[in-house]
Design brief:
By secondary structure, the protein is an alpha+beta fold. Helix content is 40%, strand content 24%. It folds into 2 domains: 189 residues, 2-Layer Sandwich (Ribosomal Protein S5, domain 2), CATH 3.30.230; 174 residues, GHMP kinase, C-terminal domain (Alpha-Beta Plaits), CATH 3.30.70.890. The mean pLDDT is 95.
Length: 373
């Protein structure tokens, strides 16, 4: 038997840096995918060939310890094998072939797409029927515990559970999720890759997590009750005590609290078919990320500012961890060429490399197919 698993990248529409604060996020899958094809082999060994990296690797399912040193692409595949086996899903040996159309390093969850596609293919080949939610959690565990990236659950859930024509509203505390119709009849999503390497993203991401944890500890004392996360604080409460927090904890707290409220408002706007209101909330989200959470950069700000001044654009914001990577623009389909031209010119005037553009809609999540050999 041969198994083919196709998993998309994702873009986060609104709700940034709220996942590790047990808040709300609203991602959508995109039309760019990772494909994993698996065929059985007799030994309990996995051989992997990556088309993108142009190289192959092999490892034993009985020796899944991670090698010391920098994280490599093969570690994501070894990691999902480790969590599947640890979870009681014994795997058979396999030849695994990986190809990807998801840009690497742009903040579009190429790693989560790789994890979910590989895990789904290997599990199905071994006769295990995992629900998408369970698969997403196992892949999230692999990235956190094996690869060592302290990510939230959003990426794996978006990759595994998204639905065409919808955004995924996810409660990162309870893991409850809803598919919210994304009425893009005459509109599209334009992903703009700033091509700025996210060299600061990892260290600053960890710094923001630590700042939020410190804010929760101090707010628990100021508000006189135990708090699990910033999700438990209201706007009224942060208005009352923000000045008692040392900088930058007040700014970080205000951003997270307001962003959670924006996600709720964005879901209501989509349910009502109000894309203009949804776009307005996207602009507000970017302003908060730029001014309060301070994770944007000049290139991402220029993308949003240029988009804001272009006819046919409804909203725009940076997306992902920040300090480079991508912004997303919600626009009328016929405005895409104008936005691309204006951004190319704006970047050229500053001597920056031309951005990369990916026009997409809200796509389906993971798909697994089987064929007899």
């Amino acid at each position: 038997m041969k198994v083919c698993a196709v998993a998309p990248g994702r873009v986060n529409l609104i709700g940034e840096h709220t996942d590790y604060n047990e808040g709300f996020v609203m991602p959508a899958a995109i039309d760019y995918t990772v494909t994993a094809e698996a065929a059985a082999r007799p030994e309990r060994c996995i051989t992997v060939y990556s088309e993108g990296f142009g190289e192959g690797e092999s490892f034993s399912l009985d020796r899944l310890e991670r090698d010391a040193g920098e994280v490599r692409w093969i570690d994501y595949i070894k990691g999902v094998c480790w969590t599947l086996e640890k979870g009681g899903y014994r795997l058979c040996g396999a030849h695994l072939s990986i190809s990807s159309r998801v840009p690497v390093g742009a903040g579009l969850s190429s790693s989560a797409a790789l994890e979910v596609a590989a895990a789904a293919a290997l599990a199905a080949l071994s006769g295990h029927a995992l629900a998408p939610r369970e698969l997403a959690l196992l892949c999230w565990q692999a990235e956190n515990e094996y690869v060592g990236v302290r990510c939230g659950v959003m990426d794996q859930f978006a990759v595994a559970l998204s639905r065409s024509g919808s955004a995924l509203l996810l409660d990162c505390r309870t893991l409850e999720h809803q598919h919210i119709p994304l009425p893009l009849d005459r509109c599209r999503l334009l992903i703009v890759d700033s091509r700025v390497p996210r060299s600061l993203a990892a260290s600053e991401y960890n710094r923001r997590r630590a700042e939020c944890e410190a804010a929760v500890e101090q707010l628990s004392g100021l508000l006189g009750r135990p708090l699990r996360s910033l999700r438990d604080v209201s706007s009224e409460e942060i208005n009352r005590v923000e000045e008692m927090l040392p900088p930058p904890l007040g700014q970080r707290s205000r951003y997270v609290i307001e962003e959670n409220e924006r996600v709720a408002a964005a879901a209501a706007a989509l349910r009502a078919g109000k894309l203009q209101e949804f776009g307005r909330l996207m602009f507000q989200s970017h302003a908060g990320l730029r001014d309060l959470y301070q994770v944007s950069c000049p290139e991402l700000d220029l993308i949003v500012e240029t988009a804001m001044g272009t006819p046919g654009v409804l909203g725009a914001r940076m997306t992902g961890a920040g300090f480079g990577g991508c912004a997303i623009v919600l626009l009328e389909a016929e405005a895409a060429a104008e936005v691309e031209q204006r951004l190319g010119e704006a970047f050229a005037r500053r001597g920056w490399r031309k951005p990369h553009f990916y026009l997409t809609s809200a796509a389906d999540g993971l798909n697994v197919s089987r064929e007899a050999r």
